[in-house]
């Protein structure tokens, strides 16, 4: 059947240059068809593998970008935790400083009250004027 198809196709092409016997023409046609099929399949496989490699490369790059984003997010969270800890420490130091200022103010006020109640002689003696 295949041979008849090629022989029929050969009858449509009239040429004086082709002087090949029928059996040899059929064999050449079969060889050409076989090689065409192999070439087509090879080309399809080559294109498929190329696209598959490109997809794998794109997936790998996307995974790397996601890993970088995840690392940046983790670092950002860590910095935020550190900033919050520092702010809490700063607030506690500010409260402690305020308490110390109040104590100092109270102590200075109490000292001034003692100096006033002791009179001018005690104040002068304290300052070293009386010896």
Give the SSE order as H and E letters: HHH
Shape: rod-shaped
Helix percentage: over 70%
Write down how many β-strands occur, each being a DSSP E stretch of 2 or more residues: 0
Mean pLDDT: 85
Number of helices: 3
Largest sheet: none
| Spatial separation of the terminal alpha carbons | 141 Å
Percent of sequence in beta strands: under 5%
Poorly predicted runs: none
Gyration radius, to the nearest Å?
Answer: 50 Å
Helix and strand composition category: mainly alpha
Structural key phrases:
about 130 residues; mainly alpha; about 90% helix
How would you characterize the overall build of this protein?
This protein is 89% helix and 0% strand. The protein is built from three helices and no strands.
List the helices and strands and how they pair.
Elements: H1 2-12, H2 22-118, H3 120-127
Short account of what is shown:
This protein has helices spanning about 1-10, 20-120, 120-125. By secondary structure, it is mainly α. The longest helix has about 100 residues, at about 20-120.
């Amino acid at each position: 059947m295949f041979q008849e198809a090629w022989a029929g196709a050969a009858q449509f092409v009239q040429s004086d240059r082709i002087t090949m016997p029928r059996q040899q023409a059929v064999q050449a046609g079969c060889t050409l068809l076989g090689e065409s099929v192999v070439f087509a399949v090879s080309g399809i496989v080559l294109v498929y593998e190329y696209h598959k490699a490109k997809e794998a490369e794109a997936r790998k790059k996307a995974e790397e970008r996601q890993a970088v984003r995840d690392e940046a997010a983790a670092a950002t969270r860590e910095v935020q935790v550190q900033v919050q800890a520092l702010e809490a420490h700063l607030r506690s130091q500010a409260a402690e400083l305020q308490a110390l200022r109040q104590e100092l103010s109270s102590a200075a006020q109490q000292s001034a009250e003692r100096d006033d109640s002791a009179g001018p002689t005690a104040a002068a003696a304290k300052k070293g004027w009386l010896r």
